[in-house]
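Q: What does the assembled structure look like for these inputs?
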Amino acid sequence: MRRAGLGLAFTFGAGLLAAGAAVAAEPVQITMWSNWPDEPAKKDWVAARVREFEATNKQCAVKLSFIPKADIYTQAKSAVRTGQAPDVFYLEPDQPEFLAGGFLEPLDGHVDLAKFEDWAKPAWTYKGKVYGLPVEAYTVELYYNKDLVKKVGVEVPPSHQLTQAGFADLVRKGAAAGITPVSQGVGDRPFPGGLLLFESLLRKLGVEDYGKLLNGTLSFKDPRVQEVMTWFKGLVDAGAYPKSFATLKLGESHYYFYQKPGALTFPDPSWFTGRAFASPESGGMPATFPLGIMQFPAMDDGQCPTCKTLAVAGSFVMYARGKNKACAGALLDSMATPGNGDKWMEQVSLQTGLKSDPAKINSSHADYFAELNARNKGATYFFGTPLLYYRSKCAETYTQVMNNAFPAGLIGVAEAADKMDAACRKGS
Amino acid sequence: MAGTTALKTTAAPTENAPASGRVSDPRQATWPVLLVFLAPALVIYLGLTAYPAVRTIFDSLFTIEGSERSYVGLANYRDLMGDETFWIAVRNTFVWAFVAPVLDVATGLLLALALYAGVPFARFLRVAWFTPVLLSYVVVAILWMWIYNYDWGVVNEGLRAAGLDALTRSWLGDPNTALASLIVTHAWKWAGFNMVVCLAAIHALPSEVLEAAELDNCGWGAKLRYVIVPMLRPTLLNLYVLAFIGKMKVFDLVWIMTGGGPLWATETVSTYVYKRAFNWNTFDLGYPSAIATVWFGVVCAAVIILNRVFKSRDRLEY
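A:
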């Protein structure tokens, strides 16, 4: 009887141990919100990194959701206040309020920051610490249709950069031939309408004074700024943009450029590829499309014809009040390898803020990469687009005026400059 | 003593009688019973309506950055008075609130009269005209963005086909036409609802009065002007007030179709509150709370005034 009791106790104890082991083996679940639900290449890259992490870190499980960017921002802004935010979420450096509010966890103790490109770190550096994993980086490029540009009688020079007058000539010839010179729309984005003007201002003013303009210490009434704005207004009045500019969405402007009705040029950040390299049935570029990349035009007496904008975009951050920081940090660290940087460039055909080895990149779009690299060779970079600098009322004014009303031809140079100075000029 | 006893004795049956009556008469229910029935609605009302409203008023006295809040008193309200965009939004919202309901109600009434008069295919038209009411704002917005499209939208294509190319324009991209275009879209969506209400009201009109009008050789126009519309007046005014309240809070359609642009031409108070709360690179809820509080007061005041202005002094007897 006593033996039987001992045996029962042993069995019971063993059962408890086994149950305990099972509980210990239960992985910790973290949540992750990513953008790019409608960009298959980027979505696949994120999903593959998460799968690899889970395979090598059995103690962690990731609940991954893909949510459109605007929705992520809206949801995250509510969630961080109430402590309900995901452990890891998508963010871009143009949302500094998350940093200022103390809602983000510094990555310094979680991720090997040596795996980031040095130029990408400042975008996420705040009070000496780095807060974001800079997956997506881009330069602002001027794409063009080689055949159509030739058809309207314009020869792109070997430097791939037209002069100020040469670009105006291209616009006039395109409009005269019934071909839209610049495919662009602002129906669902607060920035595309400003790309051509602000890249031109950068080349005119040079890095230092352009920085002053974006920081609000240089007026939009500066004669050099006025000169570029007047030239730009001439392009608008000549019919540079589609008539449906105000409502054309970003995705539609891609289709407008390389499918129907077709346009001469398309100013776009180099994340152009996210949509363009999708299949034509999904709104992508036809395989035979004669894509070229030229430099934005060189301004007369411009301080920096070789200048161009470089920026960090899609990144992943950790929530400061997350309960599973060990797993969240390990996930981000596992994503930040040079090998993953190579895969990003291979699959997405877009720059990254993670270190990568171009020699190891084996892309089906090698020609595109070669041309992109050629256009970026010898470039002097300015870091950040206007919306990375503009805040609150100034950002709203940029969106309404420089992104929309001015390129749409609704207001003149003086009124646009007045509105921008009133909203953005320091001390005004 | 004896008197007291007598009173108790006589009172007892009287107390018993209502006790059995309470079961069937809710007006006689005791407080605990009432609370059981009221509690769910009360909890929902307090939690989801009263608390957020009071909290919004309270928050409007603070600047709330991240998890830190600092008391600023009425500073947000002072800033609001000098906020140019706010006043543009107020102007646009008033245009919506006072003009659009007229269009909504007039369209609804005309459609209802068409059905009442027995237009061909009335049964089909009634369904077709009501269908937009069932559509979400997202669907309606996208549909009308196509209709207004400069290149291939049906409005501009129609104008081109009619040889009126000079009138084609980017309807939502032009500050002169953007607000009107949104108001037309909104009227299209709600015309069916107003039509159904008006049609029900028309059918409820006393047939003797209409027949008497016909016997007096009253034509359709005169009957409409002197008989139908006056008798529908309370219904039409209620529809107007309902539409007015809705327009004072208009958000969805504007947000999807224009985002308040171009050049703030379609900005409404609701879109401005949303922008200040979620789109201005700040977590400050104090300032948007001040806008919401002011507008809450304006809507309440406007509804009270409208009710007083429209209050019927002469009750129709028929």
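The mean pLDDT of chain A is 91.
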